[in-house]
Amino acid sequence: MARIAGVNIPTNKRVIIALQYIHGIGASKAAEIVEKLGIATERRVQDLTDQEVLQIRETIDAGYRVEGDLRRETAMNIKRLMDLACYRGLRHRKGLPVRGQRTHTNARTRKGKAKPIAGKKK
Predict the structure, then answer these.
(1) Is 71 helix (H, G, I), strand (E, B) or coil?
(2) Are residues 88 and 102 in the same domain?
């Protein structure tokens, strides 16, 4: 198993797919990295040489914000909104949808499991 940015990436997958296991690298960034280093798109991680793995690791460290740094930055952005007590910060604090979705029905992912209310029957 190759270890890049603190993540064990699977060895039997293609390089473009395996790089997406790293938080902060999606399909387009993975393709960009592979193209920049001149690695064939059909190559698998197990077929990479140690030198190529090292090049991938250095490229990601130098030019991309991934894993811990990215998670920390996202958490700090949310904390900043909550400290400002702006509308988005209040929605984060209450655990409600932030981007204008309806909450009368749905929104179960943010609100959690439905809680029964006693005496609600009509």
Answers:
(1) helix
(2) yes
Give the relative orientation of helices 50-63 and 27-37 as an angle to the nearest 10 degrees.
120
Can you list the pairs that 97-100 forms with residues at least 24 positions away whose Cβ atoms lie under 8 Å? Answer: none
pLDDT at 117: 81
SS3 string of 16-50? HHHHCCCCCCCHHHHHHHHHHHCCCCCCEHHHCCH
CATH number, domain with residue 34 = 1.10.8.50
59 plus 87 within the same structural domain: no
Residue with tokens 């909450």: 103
> How many Å is the Cα radius of gyration of the chain?
21
User: 83 with 62, same domain?
Assistant: no
pTM of the model: 0.78
